[in-house]
Write a structure and sequence with these properties.
Elements: H1 2-16, H2 22-32, H3 39-45, H4 51-63, H5 68-74, H6 80-88, H7 93-103, H8 109-123, H9 127-135, H10 138-145, H11 152-165, E1 170-172, E2 176-183, E3 185-193, E4 197-203, H12 209-216, H13 225-248, E5 253-255, E6 259-261, E7 265-279, E8 282-289, E9 295-296
Antiparallel strand pairs: 1-7, 2-7, 3-4, 3-5, 3-6, 4-8, 7-8, 7-9
Helix pairs in contact: 1-2, 1-7, 3-4, 9-10, 10-11, 11-13, 12-13
Length: 299
């Protein structure tokens, strides 16, 4: 669900900056999925109406059997096209956030707009990217956080698959490159062809259970080999989808059996990209190596 991706990205920024408390953010999260945004809220946020004009229409609406948009059109404040566009935006995650945060007194519209401008500036997001984040558009969000061109397609397949199969409660951070990484648990798979690639899902503590449990439809007691086998199935699905996409472009590849590591492991690789994720608020790392086979300490 795109709503949760938005609130995870922008909400985490607000709590990190101490603009919202964790309790306030959780309150918004619970409410957002069932919130239908009022046209007046959207019209003010889009600068089509002032707050005073929206309040006046609301007062008239309370005294008549007419819709907000009809009254605004009658008064010459909005056009029919304006109202149609506002209706289309009622499900936009940013607008839902604005309505809940302002109605509960957590933030004013001006404070939200100012925080969002700062969020855009600090991350150097383009206007296109920031609109994609407001709308919860994964096809815009993913390349904004995955900075290495060579892995954007594979990462996109992986994150969309996790969002679809495991949980819509997903957050992602900026990708980074390293030649060494330590994790507690890991399921990974090598792909032979052009390019050669290793893709894996790694976690610390029991965090991989959020993937294992969701995919298997059962609760594992610990991240043991059975749980890792479930995570490995998800990795295999991701790689299979990516291999299919490559095949459609004329590139053939072969998937090797997944490998599992159920204790602390240190990976080494020439081009190891790490994409930090949170799935159901549990930290998970998506790993993609294009620098040949990953090596592990002790091998």
């Amino acid at each position: 669900m795109v709503i949760i991706m938005f609130i995870n990205l922008f909400g985490k920024y607000l709590t990190d900056k101490k603009i919202l408390s964790d309790v306030q953010l959780q309150s918004i999260r619970k409410e957002q999925s069932r919130t239908r945004v009022k046209l007046g809220v959207i019209a003010v946020a889009e600068k089509l109406l002032t707050e005073k004009q929206a309040e006046e229409i609301n007062r008239k609406q309370a005294l008549t059997d007419k819709r907000f948009g009809d009254i605004a059109i009658e008064q010459g404040l909005l056009t029919l096209e304006d109202v149609a566009n506002l209706l289309d935006r009622q499900g936009v995650p940013y607008m839902q956030f604005v309505q809940i945060a302002t109605e509960r007194g957590f933030m004013t519209l001006a404070q939200i707009e100012d925080a969002f401008r700062q969020y855009q500036e600090e991350h150097h997001f383009s206007d296109e990217t920031i609109n994609g984040i407001k709308n919860g558009d994964l096809d815009v969000i993913i390349p904004a956080f995955v900075h290495e061109d060579k892995i954007k397609e594979a990462a996109g397949v992986a994150i969309r698959t996790l969002n679809r199969l495991i949980s819509t409660d997903l957050w992602m951070g900026d990708s980074y490159m390293t030649d060494r990484l330590t994790c507690d648990r890991l399921a990974c798979q090598d792909m032979k062809g052009s390019p050669e690639m290793t893709l894996g899902l790694a976690g610390m503590g029991d965090s991989l259970l959020t993937i294992a449990d969701a995919y298997a439809g059962e609760a594992f007691p610990a991240v043991d080999m059975d749980a890792l086998d479930s995570v490995g199935e998800v990795v295999n699905i991701i790689d299979g989808l990516y291999a299919t996409a490559l095949s459609e472009k004329g590139t053939e590849s072969t998937l090797l059996p997944p490998a599992y590591y159920d204790s602390e492991t240190t990976l080494r690789g020439k081009e190891l990209a790490v994409i930090p994720l949170e799935i159901d608020q549990k930290p998970v790392m998506l790993l993609i190596s294009l620098g040949g086979k990953l090596c592990f300490d002790g091998e």
